[in-house]
Amino acid sequence: MKSYTNTTYSRKDGKLAISRRHFVAAGSALPFAATVAAGILAPREAQAAKPQILESDHVLGFPTAPVTIIEYASLTCGHCGNFHKHTFGDLKKDYIDTGKVKFVYRHFPLDRFAFIAAILSECTEDDSKFFAMIDVLFEQQDNWTRQEDPALALIELGSKNGVALEEFVTCLTNQELIDAIASESLIGSSQFGVSSTPTLFIQGEKYEQNRSFEALDNYLKTLT
Predict the structure, then answer these.
(1) Which domain holds residue 82?
(2) How many Cβ atoms sit within 10 Å of the Cβ of residue 4?
(3) pLDDT tens track for 173-200
(4) How far, in Å, CA of 209 to CA of 40, rounded?
(5) Residue 127 confidence (pLDDT)
(6) Separation CA 176–CA 162 (nearest Å)
(7) Is the residue at 92 inside a domain?
(8) Phi/psi class of residue 220: alpha, beta or left (left: φ > 0; alpha: ψ in -120 to 50)?
(9) In CATH, what number is assigned to the domain containing residue 76?
(10) Going by C-beta distance under 8 Å and a sequence separation of 6 or more, which residues neighbour residue 55?
């Protein structure tokens, strides 16, 4: 069983030994996985379920926080980038760090490179580094997504943030990890009606209001 540290906990995945030359081959296998993760193969009608924190989740915050926010996001999504660059910092400072909110990040990659970026985030060593990598990927989104080959840009970004090429290649060929990301997205689509990003759930209810910090702040004040 996994448990909280002071501020975070997360999924830990096994890794396979593989040589550097497999990177291109591994990357070429991901478009189908990204298509599945986008929910194209999901059931036509989503169920009226409410998402709950799972043992496999990445959670930022204290376990005693009374409010849970779950975000489904794609790392190539501009709206997701705007949310993390302009809203998430204040949300973390005023609600997560103060013990009012637990924040769950879930993958919903909308394209191949978003899927590769999701794998990079999962290739980090521990919980805090996972969220640090998510921050880096969103902060530098305008840069790496606009390169001629975003996958190569992700290699460089990873190496600058503690994920060596060989380790990244290992993660790219970890079928268990690939399946976990695809499954997370499919469940979001088929069970919770996620069809776009970012999609936020607050206390299990889909939040469809303005995602500015001011709007979220006003909403959260009614719950905390």
Answers:
(1) 10-221
(2) 14
(3) 999 999 999 999 999 999 999 999 999 9
(4) 25
(5) 79
(6) 22
(7) yes
(8) alpha
(9) 3.40.30.10
(10) 1, 2
Spacing of C-alpha 165 from chain mean position: 21
C-alpha–C-alpha distance, residues 70 and 76, integer Å: 18
Report pTM.
0.83
Alpha-carbon torsion, ordered 186, 128, 9, 124, to 10 deg = 50
Of 105, 78, 77, the C-alpha closest to 91 is: 105
Q: 30 in a domain, yes or no?
A: yes
Spatial separation of the C-alpha atoms in residues 31 and 43, rounded to whole Å: 20
The Cα 104–Cα 136 span in angstroms is 17
> What is the total count of domains within the chain?
1
Residues 203-222: tens digit of each pLDDT: 999 999 999 999 999 999 99
- 201 within domain boundaries: yes
Give the side-chain half-sphere CA count within 13 A for 180.
22
Q: How far is CA 143 from the centre of its chain?
A: 19
- The answer to whether residue 4 sits within a structural domain is no
Q: Tell me the C-alpha distance between 220 and 101, whole Å.
A: 9
What amino acid occupies position 45?
Answer: E
The SS3 of residue 147 is coil
